[in-house]
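To whoever is on call:

I kicked off a structure prediction for a single chain this morning and the downstream step that reads the tokens threw a length-mismatch warning. I double-checked the sequence; it's 147 residues and nothing unusual in it as far as I can see. Pasting both halves so you can look.
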Amino acid sequence: VLRFAELAVRRALEDLQRRASLVYDDYREALLANPGAIHLPLAQLQARQVRMAELDGQAIGFTVVLSRDGETYELDGLFVEPDQWKHGIGRALMQDAFAQARAQGAKAMEVLSNPYAEGFYAKQGFSRIGTVRTQFGLAAKMCCELA
């Protein structure tokens, strides 16, 4: 089931993000040293910018989609429980994010991708348009045309 996330699941989604983010050794030390880096802002939940996938009443993934200017949207986060990877949940969340953004008039969606997720985003229609330095290292800046 895909639905808008509610305030009551905020902590569960942050914990999910933490589990998914700690899978890769490259980021583990920095994430553990900066526990505040994983934070789902209350305002995003209130503004219905967070969509979640749930299975048997449990959150198994979520996206955060933010409008930049009404035409370009940003996928600010896509996280899936590690034991649910490779089951189509990320793809379903991505298609849902595209549909939500299109319904609001989006023409394009951008994302900053770590090296491990770049192939996933390319399969969803994103192309690399640059490289950005983040607090956790280099990320590919990618864009997908939605029109």
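Update from on-call: the warning came from a stale cache, not from the record. Cleared it. Sanity check on the structure: The chain is about 30% helix and 35% strand.
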